[in-house]
Specification:
Length: 573
């Protein structure tokens, strides 16, 4: 395992780019881009001769449905591209749109990432104020004001007493109580911890020298967010709040406060397919896709066209040519080569095990069999240590080194801590490997997952999938779902399964896969894709966002304004 660990560390160092200070080329390039306005939509140019009409439109919309676009982070270029475009599109549909931005008052936020703070002490001492805030609020506010959208700043609704209260509470609360801490019924601690874990790119911060100080920064930021947003929502009486992610700080707290105030919440994220986005009502899609009623998809007309569409798309994911989110470059598919590299015996049953990035979206999911992914993984290895008749192949997620925030807590390293020598029937495929996860899974009797969406794909080709965590394929009637360590052990005791899923189960799985990839992932054709930051951008013309010119955008705007389902209906009926 040590050679894999050495490779992993090398890859992580290359990708994270640990420069000696914040004046690195990466940081300087980002500052220059933000200061120049590059990366933001040019709304003044897009409005052009329609500026007067636009002003009149705003004046006539004052009685329209009141919408808060709670972007909060003005330097989040992908969010600014989408959310200012949504603000303009909703204005064209008669809405009275406002925006919310942080004006530097929060001592921590989602933009604080390891790549910007290779020295965590600097962040613990100063937060984002010295390095990020100066290039966030002002350009973000300018872009919204270019389209006449009123902008609320966090400080507008915070008194000196509020700030002192947040300071005292975040400093005095025992660290053991932070994760479960609630303020007036709002789950402050859960999102504060998720923010700190994201900052360190780890699933635990116990061994981080500045872990507690960073966690308290996010706790204070979460408290300030709750106090400010609560007052804003009480004063302005919005019908719906729209914002990206729906987790971390401040977005997760905005959602908690809005739901408590009885205000509809809409969250969104870029989807996997090119030019597609996932929107969800009420909460982040991390939660809603697990609880979505099966009636939303199980009775759809299953036409030959839909069957062909999903089969062709799933096969394309082997290379990822139709996606703008992919983690493996130049995968290889030769089964003999894969078996030889791993060292498996093809004559004995192989059980696959697909991991996640350990720090990502660390939220509470009641249905999980284990409190976190690491405990599940260690439990699984210990079980297979007692089952020499089976072989376990752990495919570490490539996003550990190729994701937007590469992990600082690699699965291989954690396994080595607990198993200096792995059981002889347990094998590792490290994150840098170009082995195709799909072909590897085809070699397996069955596959165990924690939270990866790959379960949606594997069940669609008949591979039995066991779910131990928050995977979206859970509760869809096509997987074997564990809800406790005891039930998980009982499921493992039935291995090997020695057969593929029944034909009717495969059809059901394909229906859900189609729903997931082609109905919940809503295509928007107005954006131009790119390979940099942001990965997409809007360049007009303005007419393209008017009603009737983009079916996906119409679907999204209707969902926001009328509480309609965020389901894209295609022509295959």
């Amino acid at each position: 395992m040590s050679k894999h660990l050495d490779k992993l560390k090398s890859q992580v160092v290359k990708i994270i780019r640990y420069f000696p200070g914040l004046d690195s080329r990466l940081q300087l390039a980002r500052r220059k881009k933000l200061a120049s306005g590059d990366g933001y939509p040019d709304w003044k140019g897009l409005l052009g001769v329609e500026s007067q009409h636009w002003s009149e439109l705003h004046a006539s919309n004052t009685q329209g449905k009141k919408v808060l676009i709670a972007t909060s982070i003005g330097s989040h270029l992908a969010a600014m591209q989408m959310e200012t475009t949504l603000a303009a599109a909703l204005t064209l549909r008669g809405a009275n749109v406002h925006a919310l931005l942080c004006d530097g008052v929060l001592p921590g936020c989602q933009m604080c990432e390891p790549r910007f703070f290779p020295n965590s002490k600097r962040f613990a001492d100063h937060g984002p104020s010295k390095d990020l805030c100066g290039h966030c609020y002002v350009p973000g506010r300018r872009v919204y004001e270019d389209i006449g959208i009123p902008v609320h700043a966090y400080s507008d609704n915070l008194t000196d007493d509020d700030k002192r209260h947040a300071e005292q509470l975040s400093a005095k609360l025992p660290v053991s109580e932070i994760e479960g801490f609630e303020l007036d019924g709002i789950k402050i601690g859960e999102h504060a911890k998720a923010g700190a874990l994201r900052f360190f790119a780890r699933a635990t911060i116990d061994d981080e020298p500045f872990g507690e100080r960073v966690l308290r920064r996010y706790l204070k930021a979460a408290i300030l967010t709750a106090l400010s947003v609560k007052k804003l929502l009480q004063k302005e009486k919005y019908e719906v709040a729209v914002f990206h992610h729906g987790i971390y700080v401040p977005q997760g707290i905005i959602g908690e406060v809005a739901r408590q105030q009885g205000i509809r919440v809409v969250n969104w994220n870029p989807a996997y397919r090119k030019n597609c986005f996932i929107f969800s009502h009420g909460d982040t899609y991390h939660h809603t896709l697990m609880d979505e009623p099966v009636m939303a998809w199980e009775n759809m007309d299953w036409s030959p066209e839909r069957e062909e569409t999903i089969s062709r798309y799933l096969r394309s994911r082997w290379q990822g040519e139709n996606d703008w989110i992919r983690f493996t470059e130049n995968p290889y598919f030769e089964k003999d080569r894969i078996l030889a590299e791993i060292g498996c015996d093809a004559s004995r049953p192989i059980i696959g095990c697909l991991t996640n990035v350990m720090w990502d979206a660390q939220l509470h999911y009641p249905a999980n069999a284990f409190p976190n992914m690491l405990e599940w993984l260690l439990h699984t290895v210990r079980y297979f240590e007692k089952r020499p008749d089976l072989q376990l192949v752990i495919r570490v997620h490539p996003a550990e080194i190729r994701g937007s925030v590469p992990t600082r807590q690699p699965v291989v390293e954690e396994l080595e801590k607990h198993f200096p020598k792995l059981p002889s029937n347990v094998f590792i495929v490290p994150p840098e490997s170009n082995i195709s996860t799909y072909v590897l899974s085809e070699l397996c009797d069955s596959v165990i997952i924690y939270g990866t969406k790959t379960g949606v794909e594997l069940t669609s080709v008949g591979i039995p999938v066991i779910v131990a965590g928050e995977a979206w394929i859970r509760n869809k009637g096509v997987t074997i779902d564990a809800t406790s360590p005891e039930k998980y052990g009982n499921i493992l005791s039935t291995l090997p399964r020695s057969q593929r899923l029944p034909a009717e189960t495969v059809v059901r799985a394909k229906k859900y896969a189609y729903h997931f990839f082609f109905r919940r992932m809503i295509p928007i054709n107005i954006f131009k894709g790119g390979s940099g930051v942001p990965p997409y951008s809007f360049h007009g013309p303005l007419a393209s966002i008017k009603p009737g010119n983009d079916k996906g955008l119409d679907c999204i705007c209707q969902g926001i304004l009328d509480d309609a389902p965020f389901i894209y209906e295609d022509s295959y009926v």
